[in-house]
Amino acid sequence: MRVSEGTARVIGLSKIRLDAFPTTAYIMVGEKCRRGCSFCTQSIRSDSRRDYLSRVTWPEFDDDSVAAGIARAYGEGSLKRACLQVVDSKEGMAAVQEVLKKLKAANDIPVNASVYITSIEEADELFELGVDTISLPIDVASKELYSDIKGGSLDRLLDIIYGLAEKYPGRINTHLIAGLGETEQEMIKLIYDLHRHGVSVALFAFTPVRGTPMEGRGQPHIGSYRRVQISRYLLVNGLASFDDFVFKDGVLVDIKGKKEIMELLKDGKAFMTSGCPDCNRPYYNERPGGTMYNYPRPLTKDEALEAICESGLFEVDMR
Q: Is the pTM for the entire model greater than 0.85?
């Protein structure tokens, strides 16, 4: 099995130094993706190393050693769940089934599968195999850009996601990547729609990786990312509605009730890694010492105030 470098460290198969430890075991399933996503290292259009996904390396280890290490870490409480990053390859469901069999034989850790599927029946099969939740990554929030960047139809994918959310309440989630050319308004509106349908949303910042068609594109401006993070946090926690947001030319410029909202943001939770419970994805979008898009841990008071200030929506006293 291939696991993220951080996962390897937590389960005792690597001695790499980490500033933050993952609380989810990340496992890559399959190789040589058949899809052509312009941002992805595993894409058929990518010349990147095959042991990369985003900016994270995924070393390969003996299956039994990985399963045993995950079982031990789960028993000790250092891991809370496992996430299968399923590459759309010819191995498909057979590879997922094999990994699940080994994991479930060793322990009862909850398992999420992040996977490309084209029908509700394929999701039915995954649940029958033993996954607890399924992530269907949307990634691109703009309908105009979706087909160019990922191929296919965003409307078609949303139909599947909403159908699954109705059939399996609380068990369907998705990923969105900020910085692919969408407007803040497009991103926030999609988050709102997904939440209304009961779909959990994990927010990522675009990360350029050498060898991909989008390697020359920069990461999103931190102010824009903070505004999307704040909006997501308010929406999914029932603290604001879409009508409370004010946009100008696609940019979020104001939120109704800002004084009260700022107080709600001071705990910093809006700026932590979002998505599945206990998924913190350390440095998936960041380099140690660089701009922190998603914090993998609770923020300090000063970090939270700085993040609020970066949004450009609030007057913040940093004294």
A: yes
